[in-house]
Amino acid sequence: MSTPLPANRRSRLLEILERDGAIRLESAAAELDVSVMTVRRDIQDMDAEGLLRRVRGGAIAPVLPRAFGERAATRSAAKAAIARKAAALLPVEGAAAFDASTTSGALISLLSAQHLVVATNSIDNAAVARRRPGVRSIVVGGELEERTGSLVGPTAELVAASMSYSRFFTSASAVHPEFGMSEVSLDEASVKATFASRADETVLLADASKLGQQVLARALGWSEIDVLVTELDPRDDRLDPYRDLVEIL
């Protein structure tokens, strides 16, 4: 066994985290050709540095507010796969709401509508919607959350609540079978809850790295979510805890 230097080993662990959405002790040790104990120690040190979040059996990405551009560069292949799946749910007329996530942005980029109003609390996502055929783009306004680029607060909620939507498409910071979907910001959670309250259906777009996690602010419970779309095969056992809670695509 030729052990990689610590700096190289940690770089490779971060590559695994980006590629798979999580680090699993045994598989990472096999891939790096080191012991499980070595990977465990690296994860402990990297957790202390804020590079990842240690969980039972490995690690996941740290759940922190991040700028739109930074989020867009993370798990891009998974987001594209989710968008392709969810495209079948996109309405062609009426009104639909989208949160400020980059996953919603990937889905908006696939829109081809006739007379569709798109409401969002993201300037970036509104700009994408504005370029799509048959779409009228509306930004709900509000206070800029500078860490994420989202628009939040009472004004955003008031405008979001003033319309009705056939579907609300939203991602989440974390998705848990008991806690529901949650956010790192109370303000973000509140805007999403407002959009969902005015929608006929809510579609949750979440990559596998979000599953089994929970963070500060609960946004929606499972009774308020109609469809869960991930990049996984719907038969994947990682989705087993959610099968009795929601329709899975």
UniProtKB/TrEMBL annotation:
<dbReference type="Pfam" id="PF08220">
    <property type="entry name" value="HTH_DeoR"/>
</dbReference>
<keyword id="KW-0805">Transcription regulation</keyword>
<dbReference type="Pfam" id="PF00455">
    <property type="entry name" value="DeoRC"/>
</dbReference>
<dbReference type="InterPro" id="IPR018356">
    <property type="entry name" value="Tscrpt_reg_HTH_DeoR_CS"/>
</dbReference>
<comment type="function">
    <text>Repressor of the lactose catabolism operon. Galactose-6-phosphate is the inducer.</text>
</comment>
<keyword id="KW-0238">DNA-binding</keyword>
<dbReference type="InterPro" id="IPR050313">
    <property type="entry name" value="Carb_Metab_HTH_regulators"/>
</dbReference>
<feature type="domain" description="HTH deoR-type">
    <location>
        <begin position="6"/>
        <end position="61"/>
    </location>
</feature>
<dbReference type="InterPro" id="IPR014036">
    <property type="entry name" value="DeoR-like_C"/>
</dbReference>
<dbReference type="GO" id="GO:0003677">
    <property type="term" value="F:DNA binding"/>
</dbReference>
<dbReference type="InterPro" id="IPR001034">
    <property type="entry name" value="DeoR_HTH"/>
</dbReference>
<dbReference type="InterPro" id="IPR037171">
    <property type="entry name" value="NagB/RpiA_transferase-like"/>
</dbReference>
<dbReference type="InterPro" id="IPR036390">
    <property type="entry name" value="WH_DNA-bd_sf"/>
</dbReference>
<keyword id="KW-0678">Repressor</keyword>
<keyword id="KW-0804">Transcription</keyword>
<protein>
    <recommendedName>
        <fullName>Lactose phosphotransferase system repressor</fullName>
    </recommendedName>
</protein>
